[in-house]
Design brief:
Helix content is about 5%, strand content about 60%. The protein is mainly beta. The chain has one domain. A 14-stranded mixed sheet has the order 7-6-5-4-3-2-1-14-13-12-11-10-9-8, covered by helices on one side. The longest helix has 7 residues.
Length: about 200
């Protein structure tokens, strides 16, 4: 099943072309944003069986009023033996922390989480079939900040709250933050109040 999804976000928007198979997904997307600097972003996501992340590639670019154009890219690879590798490239100077991170921090994670993107909340929900109930379940994620593309370990907990018609309300919690997210029957985000609301 292929889906085209559009989320309106505070200060930006995101389009994702998603292919959902029985136990995996692939996606390509693009986003624009304005905080903390204006940027445009493109990503490609590949998972293997049980919706486990195999590879995430992200490219982001902008133009600093003082330093001129800049770009950076990040490739996260999750090998079959469970090991993560991080590769970055960049041009120009952006007023952001350097991209990348220490893969040792998130060894044991099976998912990536692209910051400010509602898409990557889908994998843990699909894996646990949480649109039908369950939780709380804790996940260790390789979390990618946007637009800096720094990578950190993030512990996140998902808990089924209730059904609303065909949709499921699932509570998301990470240290210092919690929010109820609305997922459709396919496990794709409809409304993540602080991140984005789907309009298509």
């Amino acid at each position: 099943m292929a889906r085209s999804l559009v989320w309106m976000k505070p200060g930006g928007a995101e389009l994702a072309e998603v292919e959902l198979l029985e136990d995996r997904l692939t996606a390509r997307g693009m986003a624009i944003g304005s905080d903390p600097v204006p940027y445009r972003l493109e990503y490609e996501l590949l998972t293997v069986a049980d919706y486990v992340t195999s590879r995430l590639q992200v490219r982001v670019a902008g133009h600093d009023v003082n330093q001129g154009p800049w770009s950076r890219s990040l490739t996260l690879v999750h090998a079959l033996d469970g090991q993560w590798t991080v590769e970055t490239h960049g041009t120009g100077t952006a007023p952001l922390p350097p991209p990348g991170g220490d893969a040792a921090e998130f060894q044991g994670a099976v998912d990536c989480d692209l910051g400010l993107s509602p898409l990557t909340n889908t994998m843990p929900v699909l894996r646990s079939r949480m649109v039908n109930g369950g939780g709380p379940l804790e996940h260790l994620m390789a979390w990618v900040s946007v637009p800096a593309l720094t990578v950190h370990a993030s512990r996140q907990t998902y808990t089924f709250v209730r059904r609303e018609g065909a949709n499921a309300i699932i509570n998301y919690a990470s240290p210092g933050f919690t929010e109820d997210i609305v997922f459709d029957s396919d496990g794709l985000v409809l409304d993540y109040p602080s991140i984005g609301r789907r309009i298509a």
